[in-house]
Write a structure and sequence with these properties.
Blueprint: H1 2-33, E1 37-41, E2 50-53, E3 59-62, H2 69-77, E4 84-89, H3 95-98, H4 101-107, E5 109-115, H5 123-135, E6 138-141, E7 147-151, E8 156-162, E9 178-183, E10 186-190, H6 196-206, E11 214-216, H7 228-234, E12 238-241, H8 254-263, E13 266-269, E14 275-279, E15 284-286
Parallel strand pairs: 3-4, 4-5, 5-6, 10-11, 11-12, 12-13
Antiparallel strand pairs: 1-2, 1-14, 2-3, 7-8, 8-9, 9-10, 14-15
Helix pairs in contact: 4-5
């Protein structure tokens, strides 16, 4: 009996040492990341899911794809003991942007929600709405008055560029929350499914303030978004297209691909795997 008890104690000591060692290695890994902002465009099929981690560790999930694929992607990106996401931002109420949120809300503690101005009568929207209500997170409707500070020390923040106010009269895609993530000299433009009409309005409002090194192509590369004028003002070095392999919509459309190539930007598609950028606020690196 004593030998069994001793063996059990030795096993728990061994297990503790292993877990402690893993913790130290992960701590050193995070330390090595130093002052980097990490932005991951997840491969979630035909949908959007963008995970942001600031240098101080604060995390944001913009959209969650059409299904539970986002949970696997989060598990591959976050530390295994991390069960909290600071902020979620659904850009609008379509399933390919909110479909994964109910499972995310089940598995992670969500501290705050910057909710979209759009709504829906679909079952998935009802489920999403029920989950965020039960989560007891801080909930705020995102508007262009909002600047979301992620890391004050490093100066990392998100500008909400659109909508300005009530967008209930707009088609749901055009009611998308449009964001610009900023760290030093580097910006990421995240447009949801906003169409060319909204893009034109953004150019009118912000002009060269839209300039960003990375652009997430609107509406999965549909020809209803990513106009020539908008591309010329944003002037990205990289364009990310989040669309599923052989999707039934034909995204991305050839016209959009041609416009992006003509602009000189490089195209990356999530159908080939998750795309991850690192930046120290001065230079941009692709994983």
């Amino acid at each position: 009996m004593k030998n069994r008890s001793q063996q059990r104690n030795n096993f728990f000591i061994f297990l503790f040492c292993i877990l402690f060692g893993i913790g130290i290695l992960l701590f050193l890994y995070k330390k090595q990341q130093g002052d980097f902002l990490v932005v991951s465009f997840f491969n979630v099929g035909q949908g959007d899911a963008i995970f942001i981690e600031a240098p101080n560790g604060k995390q944001v999930l913009v959209d969650a794809g059409p299904d539970t694929s986002v949970v696997y992607e989060l598990g591959s990106t976050m530390s295994f003991w991390d069960r909290t996401i600071d902020i979620i931002i659904p850009t609008h109420a379509d399933k390919d942007h909110i479909g994964g949120f109910p499972e995310v809300l089940n598995r992670y503690k969500i501290l705050a929600v910057y909710d979209s101005q759009s709504s829906s009568t679909t079952a998935i929207y009802e489920e999403y709405n029920k989950e965020i209500t039960e989560e007891e997170s801080i909930i705020k409707k995102a508007t262009s008055e909002d600047t979301i500070i992620l890391d004050q020390e490093h100066g990392v923040y998100i500008r909400v560029l659109f909508p300005e106010g009530d967008v209930s009269s707009l088609e749901r895609n055009d009611a998308s929350t449009v964001l610009q993530l900023v760290y030093g000299d580097i910006e990421f433009m995240l447009t949801g499914d906003a169409g060319t009409m909204v893009e034109e309005y953004l150019v009118y409002l912000y002009g060269e303030g839209l300039s960003s090194e990375v652009l997430k192509a609107g509406h999965h590369g549909s020809k209803t978004s990513t106009s020539e004028k908008f591309l010329s003002v944003v002037n990205p070095d990289y364009v990310v297209i989040s669309a599923g392999e052989d999707n039934r919509y034909g995204h991305p459309h050839q016209e959009v691909i041609d416009l992006i190539f003509a602009s000189g930007a490089k195209i990356f598609e999530t159908k080939n795997g998750t795309i991850q950028f690192f930046t120290d606020g001065k230079e941009l690196f692709l994983q």
